[in-house]
Design a protein that fits this description.
Four Helix Bundle (Hemerythrin (Met), subunit A); mainly alpha; Arc Repressor Mutant, subunit A; three-stranded antiparallel sheet; 69% helix; 4% strand; single chain; 11 helices
């Protein structure tokens, strides 16, 4: 969601950020009319926005208290919207660290599961093949954007190939982390040849049904990301 979208998108982004940033602090109570004034949109738009924020655990509604802002312990922290707002909030490093820890825990296991699923003939591998082909092609290009897009596609393909619905559910979460790293750390950098090689090893291991090699190469990718950030 960006400020350039619809009135609903803009209002959701404005109010979601306000909660994360503390402009609407925990325990703050408000009314639909108050949020209409703050967001500058219609009552119908604000009502829909509050429903979304309620589903994210950021607002509660009650007859006597109206709309009440909830603390972070209630938020759906695996929702990409919440992740995005936290990444641009007052403590972005906390969200970055959590995303890296999640990647370290999930992605090697997903790569191993993908290799096993491919070995058993349970998954179509074209998306992974297309992603690594695009990554290798983009590695020699002067623009970093194509490589970063292929990188995101490859990681999404690995999660999708895992035959694990929980891993697949995390594709959007992992993608937010990859996008943020691309913007913060690698937007102007050319691809590292060893990174390209490692991603190739992941793809080849999965396509060859080698779970151990797939997990090992993916683990090195995530660990290199963490070391580079430090």
């Amino acid at each position: 969601m960006t400020a350039s979208g619809t009135a609903f998108d803009r209002a959701l982004d404005l109010l979601g950020r306000a909660i994360v940033d503390g402009e609407l602090p925990v325990g703050h109570t408000d009314t639909i009319e108050g949020l209409v004034e703050r967001a500058g949109v219609s009552r119908s738009v604000v009502r829909e926005v509050t429903r979304v924020l309620g589903s994210l655990g950021m607002l509660s509604a009650g007859r006597r208290v109206g709309l009440r802002v909830l603390g972070g312990e209630h938020w759906d922290v695996l929702d990409p919207l919440v992740i995005r707002w936290r990444l641009h909030g007052p403590e972005p490093q906390e969200q970055i660290d959590e995303l890296r820890a999640l990647r370290h825990a999930i992605e090697p296991a997903a790569a191993a599961a993908a290799a096993t699923a491919v070995q058993r003939g349970q998954r179509e591998t074209q998306t992974l093949e297309d992603a690594i082909t695009a990554m290798r092609r983009a590695a020699g290009a002067p623009e970093a954007a194509a490589f970063l897009q292929a990188d995101r596609a490859l990681h999404a393909a690995v999660l999708g190939l895992s035959a694990n619905s929980m891993f697949t559910r995390l594709r959007a979460v992992i993608d937010e982390g990859l996008q943020e790293r691309a913007l913060r750390e690698r937007a102007e950098l050319l691809p590292d040849p060893h990174d390209v090689e490692l991603h190739g090893r992941v793809a080849e291991a999965i396509l060859g049904g080698d779970a151990e090699a797939a997990a090992s190469a993916m683990r090195e990718i995530v660990e290199r990301t963490t070391r580079a950030a430090r």
